[in-house]
Fold:
Amino acid sequence: MEYLIGQRWVSHADAQLGLGVVVEVEPRRITLSFPAVGEERTYAIENAPLTRLRFKVGDHINTVEGVELVVTDVHEQHGLLMYTGTDHHEEQIAVSELELDAFVQLTTPQQRLLNGHFDKNSDFALRVATLEHTDRLQRSPASGLMGSRTSLLHHQLYIANEVGQRHAPRVLLADEVGLGKTIEAGMIIHQQLLTGRASRVLVLLPPSLMHQWLVEMLRRFNLHFALFDIDRLAQMDEGNPFEAEQLVLCSMEMFEANDHLQQLALDAGWDLVVVDEAHHLHWSEDEPGEDYRFVESLSQVSPGLLLLTATPEQIGQASHFARLRLLDPSRFHDLEAFKEQELEYRQMSAMADALEAGTVPEDLPADLDRSLPAGELVNQLLDRHGTGRVLFRNTRAAVEGFPQRILHRHPLPVPEEYAHAQVDLIERLHPELPYYDDSWLDFDPRVEWLVKTLKELRPEKVLVICAHATTAVALEHYLHMRAGIRSSAFYEGLSIIERDRAAAYFADETNGAQTLVCSEIGSEGRNFQFSRHLILFDLPMNPDLLEQRIGRLDRIGQQHDVEIHVPYLEGTPQETLLDWYDRGLDLFRDSCSAGTMILETFRDRLVEQLKTRTEAFDTLLVDSADFTHRTREELREGRDRLIERNSCRRDVADALINEIEGLESGDTLENYLEALCEAFGVDQEFHSEQTLILRPSEHMLTGHFPYVGDEGTTVTFSRDKALAREDMEFVTWEHPMIHEAMDMVHSTELGNAALGTIKLKGVAAGTMLLEALFTVNCVAPKSLQVERFLPLTPMRLLVDARGKELANLVPHERLNSLVEKVKKPTALAIIKQVHREVDAKMSLAKAQAEVRLKEVLTDAENLMRSELGAELARLEALREVNPSIREEELENLRYRIEECAIHIAHANLQLQALRLIITT
Structure:
């Protein structure tokens, strides 16, 4: 190769030097200046790590003056390359290679390959795998649903899929206690964020649920919400603090009597607003409460709205109407009209019952075809249901899988120290509270009983819950230090990481704690259904809190009956409260979503009996039992079973579960993550089956690998293990670690150019094969979800010396197993000899890919118009009989169809990777 002053060369030993220019040529040495870094380098001519930079027609080049040109002609003049190109004004400009910008980056596969910038064949394979996995995930009907640390439950997945795919969903989630409304909301938020339908989310909560939501969103969905309170807002800079974060958790109480804060929240602009415990919003036709008016204002300026509430009938039809009115005020504007329509919907529910029993009702709507199968007629009734699109409610009666509850009462004598204490009611329910030290542990009979019971239950896992953190800490310390029982504490004074460690220690089957002692927060957010024994060291005054405590074990997925142990001091308010819960409300055997309402009904009478128990207590028990029975019956009889059918269609949920389980089965994801770690220099260590420990190393390709901390990160691919071990990252195809690592491969040149040799029988040595990988490049807003119809669609071509396409004969995996590494000097020598052949084979490969692209784009547009068009036609027809379908939804569908068509039409090919293979 002849070197001349003024020629431009690149160093394949150090691409960061940029574009060099020859400034001195000696018989055996050559000196280049690299203006981009202000350095000169001298090389021995015989082994200089240099490649002549030659742009081709169609390439984009930049001059030192910052002019970008598209090359239209290249010729050589006195040993220097001369480029002719057009600028953005379509004017022709001629420049020599001397005028090229030194800050050149060779990132396209062809540029890197022909200029001697090679990657490992393993990196090439990783790039191909990344594109293929991305394509598969884009095509999956479970997209957006597989990344959550949750059990795959039919009703939750169905609701998340049905609501999460909507544009600006506005729905009421009203599942009964224990069915996971928070999880459903999290899954919807997660899918809306992943698919680009939402980016800013505000969640409004009662103060008691703030920590639970923060933990649930982080641990289950990897969603990092910012928790806003008065103190944080006071410390923030000027401007609107709500604009500083995308995902925000706030207490409803923070906005009470604070018009300024309310206005800031309204001005911030949210894609989705979520309100938990929405049944607490105060509303009447005459005078809505301030909290209701604030949420109403938010609902008017925010496209999406999720309301979470207890069973709607729990607090009356008017309150139920008030919540629906927030979702769609034009549809739900008159309470009396709503009551009349609800009666009609109850009749539809009866029709559905009759159809499923094999009878076609006489009063079936006239526009329904009576000859259709019963299942199709039921589906049409579900579509017509007035609140079926805005209200979702599943009941424990309809959802299978709940265990039985068994109560064990353990009466204990009152110690002398407690008997003579003159304390208030709360301290009589929790007599250890007045003690500033731990001396009560020595005489409280509940402590001795607890130690004895835990030893008898060994090796069973036992969850202990008490009301106060001081009690929990003292008990755990006693069990651990004085009774020799493996235990852990879980209370509000711990950080989130410390709570995770405590929960993980309890969950560990081999070397973990036998018992976890929790304060009241132990009944919020965490699920311990791997345990079946629950000890209630004391009882809360609120029936809903008691239900929450039991609900930590009484959940779908519990494999055993839940054994509830209650030690209590005889003849004290503890026994009275236990009797009221047990004999009055029957809460230990049957859940009740109306606990707060029942408490409010009998609060005064109950408090009097807790202070001094009299004969009137028997009357209170009878009245409470009768009222609770009637309330339960009203809730059961008042259930709208049509809504329940519409809240979980098992065939749809089954298909989603099968898809997710299929993606999680096998070791494909584990192998892919190991390949990522190998490429990026992350150390891996086997932890246990389907579990790895990842640690950063000194040889990492980048300074950071997502979700791998300085101390390392333990990851599991097992959903069951992840549900029991919240200290581990549950890695799925939608975990941010995988998602961001895939982006790191996509957005860099890693693996996009490689060279290797291969031995093939019957093929002459020196034969060249060019393996090219193209994908479809469609630039479109994420919210359109064009990839549903036009995914990456990797196109692999393998062109031989005669231009024949061999990809089907020699699969990529087979080629990977045969290809061998080539030493760098040999590879560079090969490249210098095959420039023209590579260009020729590249042209052949691209021409074949262009032919495939036309068919792919046609199929994509047809699929898009078929799916979205069918949904639009269905909703337009249904809107005639179901006014809860909003015009905004229809307009968005029409817009999506036209915009998707435009972007699909403008899609083109993108060359993702090239590998040159020489036979030996």
Summary: The domain at 666-733 is CATH 3.30.360.80 (Dihydrodipicolinate Reductase; domain 2).
